[in-house]
Specification:
Order of helices and strands of chain B: EHHEEHEHHEHHHHH
Radius of gyration of chain B: 19 Å
CATH superfamily of the largest domain in chain B: NADH:ubiquinone oxidoreductase-like, 20kDa subunit
Largest interface: A-B, 71 and 69 residues
Number of helices of chain B: 10
CATH topology of chain A: Cytochrome-c3 Hydrogenase, chain B
Largest sheet of chain B: 5 strands, parallel
CATH class of the largest domain in chain B: Alpha Beta
Helix content of chain B: 25-40%
CATH class of chain A: Mainly Alpha
Strand content of chain B: 5-15%
Number of domains of chain A: 1
Strand order of the largest sheet of chain B: 2-1-3-4-5
Structural class of chain A: alpha+beta
CATH superfamily of chain A: Cytochrome-c3 Hydrogenase, chain B
Number of helices of chain A: 14
Strand order of the largest sheet of chain A: 8-7-6-11
Shape of chain B: globular
Number of strands of chain A: 14
Shape of chain A: globular
Distance between the termini of chain B: 38 Å
CATH architecture of the largest domain in chain B: 3-Layer(aba) Sandwich
Number of strands of chain B: 5
Distance between the termini of chain A: 33 Å
CATH architecture of chain A: Orthogonal Bundle
Radius of gyration of chain A: 21 Å
Oligomer: heterodimer
Chain lengths: 441, 250
């Protein structure tokens, strides 16, 4: 029997931003499998030109509400690299803590509110309020905790206030460190319950041998904030050579900019990090990975969600470690700094170029600035994890669709949606930088 | 009958929607009072055009968006904007500092022609807005207050006083006294001086007061020897969209 699919998912739901899925199959032959980005372009890189480098983190944080802390940290580090500022050890530790909070928050949102409804066979978390009330309450409670600790550390989670070039405008008091620890200790029971729940969820079976890209380092730490750019194909580059990995290109069927390294495409995100740095996971996180049967090399992109769960445990435990060390060592409050537009020349500025490569929840994020000797931004470039993943998603679709031809069109549509969602795409991010195919109907 | 509420997003970071999810378990109390019929970021359900209250996030930056917001307005009995992008244009407005073809070309190269883009506008530059929730991101207590007013059908207006009035009550040290430029004196209050409480300056995300104390502001700038240009440039970060004239994008 010949099989035909004509799938067109417009405004894919439960993802961040606007995207459409197009899959066409005629007489068992796959004609088209594409992910179109239809987000309105916002032109951030263009808008940054002429503004003070000290405003860059405030502006670029607004690229994305979910990963605003990640953008903030990439922006700050690229800016500091450009003007030649070296942050203190305490600042770096606090930045790592902030990034852990964001990873935790974003992954939990994805696991509970965006993915779980598919695996439980409902359209959103709303029907779960009556059928799985405890689960929904737990999800919202954990989400609130992430928010509360972020509030204490940087004023708020969405568009953090106190993280700036040079350090932090406000450093946590002893009481505030204790408060954060209390919140996180209390979260452990909910995390255990989350792991238990996740162990019961069935992810679709699918494998495609592929390349994974993420940060790597020589120390024993699972790298999020700093490191070189590494690949499971054994390539390694310093951050200023990011373009050797991303190689953005345009394909005839879409005006969206794609990325590829040496193969046809590559994947970034939690699964890439886990495949690259599994041995460096916190022992508790590793135990969870073992319990759910996740180990490198894992080639099933649907398990990106499972890798996120492992990282949640890691981020929670590492946050607790950082806070405890900070409490025992004591905070150096003399490092508190506010620079504004650097009106008081608090920070020395020189002309230059700066780079940052940061592991944000959805994968490796690059910020790159060029500033003049007054600290004015001359050029800006940012490459977002989702940009890098779109090409890989399409290659997954091209392998997955022919393997699943027994499915009805409805089932196939859901499977495609689940695949895209597994990558946790942040389309509102990606569209600000890549070429967007605007479908004019 | 519970009011049917639909959330729609335009050009934005979706951080204000996220602020809604960040309410935590209290969100269930809110959901008890309203019927959320569409919320693309977290729900696959669609309203099919049946809603009473439309909550709008994001600014209007394409021709397609102009048509879409007009359609939403024609259905919604009440329209609420959340966040700076929808309420005053927000950071997207910085694009208006440049010639549109030039900035598009900078980001998208020769392919810029594929992109529908018009000068950034706040929602009220296209359709009538009934309630505003300001800020970048929006301040959740204000959102809850506005939602209550909207559901009861009584008007709400953000306080017509400056952020400084709240900042003083919070006993923060004035940033001008530390040599920095702060937008507090001319920015609409209602955020409880969120940023200054956390040691940073005010960036003016809630928009300029309808009637700012100009003389006072100029005196402050003179006293601290701060060029007016710095302040104007800072104001362009959130308020530039408001320069777009009526029907300019039609």
């Amino acid at each position: 029997m010949s099989k035909n699919y004509d799938i067109k998912v417009e405004y894919l739901t439960r993802v961040e931003g606007h995207g459409n899925i197009v899959v066409n199959v005629r007489d068992n032959k796959l004609e088209k499998a594409e992910l179109h980005i239809v987000e309105a372009p916002r032109l951030f890189e263009g808008m940054l030109r002429g503004r003070s480098i000290f405003e860059a983190q405030h502006i670029t944080s607004r690229i994305c509400g979910i990963c605003s802390c990640g953008h903030t940290l990439a922006s700050i580090q690229a800016a500091e690299d450009a003007i030649g500022f070296t942050p203190s050890k305490q600042t770096i530790e606090l930045r790592k803590l902030l990034l852990h909070y964001e990873t935790l928050d974003s992954h939990l949102l994805h696991i509970y509110l965006l993915v779980a409804p598919d695996l439980l066979g409902v359209k959103s978390f709303v029907p779960l309020i009556s059928t799985h009330n405890k689960v929904v309450r737990r999800a919202l409670r954990m989400k609130k905790t992430c928010n509360d600790v972020c509030d204490i550390l940087v004023g708020r989670h969405v568009h953090p206030i106190s993280a700036i070039i040079g350090g932090f405008t406000k450093l946590p008091s002893v009481g505030e460190i204790t408060d954060q620890l209390t919140f996180l200790y209390d979260m452990r029971a909910d995390m255990d319950a989350t792991v238990e729940l996740a162990a019961t969820l069935k992810f679709p079976q699918f494998e495609r041998e592929m390349e994974f890209v993420g940060l790597v380092s020589d120390d024993g730490e699972y790298p999020f904030l700093m490191g070189d750019i590494g690949s499971t194909d054994n390539f390694r580059y310093p951050k200023n050579e990011y373009k050797k990995v991303t190689n953005e290109f345009i394909v005839p069927h879409s005006s969206a900019k794609f990325a590829k390294h040496k193969r046809e495409s590559y994947m970034v995100g939690a699964l890439a990090r886990l495949n690259l740095n599994y041995d460096k996971l916190h022992p508790k996180a590793k135990a969870v990975a073992e319990a759910i049967g996740l180990k490198p090399m894992c080639y099933n992109p649907f398990l990106n969600t499972a890798a996120q769960l492992v990282e949640c445990v890691h981020a929670l435990e590492e946050s607790i470690r950082i806070l405890k060390e900070l409490r025992d060592r004591g905070v150096n409050y003399s490092e508190q700094i506010v620079v504004g537009l650097n009106e008081t020349n608090n920070i020395e500025v020189k002309a230059g170029e700066g780079y940052a490569a940061v592991e944000v929840p959805r994968g490796i994020l690059f910020h790159h600035y060029e500033v003049d000797d007054k600290g004015k931004i001359v050029n800006a470039n940012c490459i977002i994890p989702t940009n890098q993943n779109v090409n890989n998603i399409e290659h997954d679709m091209k392998k997955l669709v022919p393997e699943q031809m027994e499915k009805s069109e409805e089932q196939m549509t859901l499977l495609m949606e689940m695949l895209v969602r597994a990558y946790d795409p942040c389309i509102s991010c990606s569209a600000h930088f890549l070429d967007v195919k605007y479908i004019n109907r | 009958m519970k009011a049917k509420v639909a959330f729609f997003d335009f050009a934005c970071c979706e951080g204000c929607q996220l602020q809604v999810a960040n309410i935590g378990e209290a969100l269930l109390d809110v959901l008890d009072k309203i019927d959320v019929v569409e919320f693309r970021e977290v729900m696959s359900e669609k309203s099919g055009g049946d809603y009473d209250v439309a909550v709008i996030e994001g600014s209007i930056t394409t021709k397609h968006a102009i048509e879409r917001i007009k359609e939403i307005r024609s259905i919604a009995k009440v329209l609420i904007t959340i966040g700076a992008c929808a309420s005053i244009g927000g950071v997207n407005g910085m694009k208006n500092n440049f010639e549109l073809p030039e900035i598009k070309k900078y980001v998208y190269g020769e392919d810029e022609k594929y992109f529908d883009s018009v000068p950034t506008m706040a929602v009220d530059q296209v359709v009538k807005v009934d309630y505003y929730v300001h800020g970048c991101p929006m301040y959740v207590p204000e959102f809850v207050t506005v939602l209550k007013h909207a559901l009861m059908g009584i008007p709400y207006k953000a306080p017509e006083k400056s952020v400084c009035t709240e900042c003083k009550l919070n006993e923060n040290e004035c940033l001008f006294d530390r040599g920095l430029t702060c937008m507090g004196p001319v920015t609409r209050a209602g955020c409880n001086s969120w940023c200054i409480n956390n040691g940073n300056i005010c960036y003016g995300c809630r928009g300029m007061l309808d009637d700012p104390a100009k003389t006072g502001q100029i005196e402050i700038l003179k006293k601290h020897d701060i060029p007016l240009e710095w302040v104007t440039n800072k104001f362009n970060m959130y308020n530039k969209a408001k320069d777009v004239k009526e029907n300019e994008n039609e």
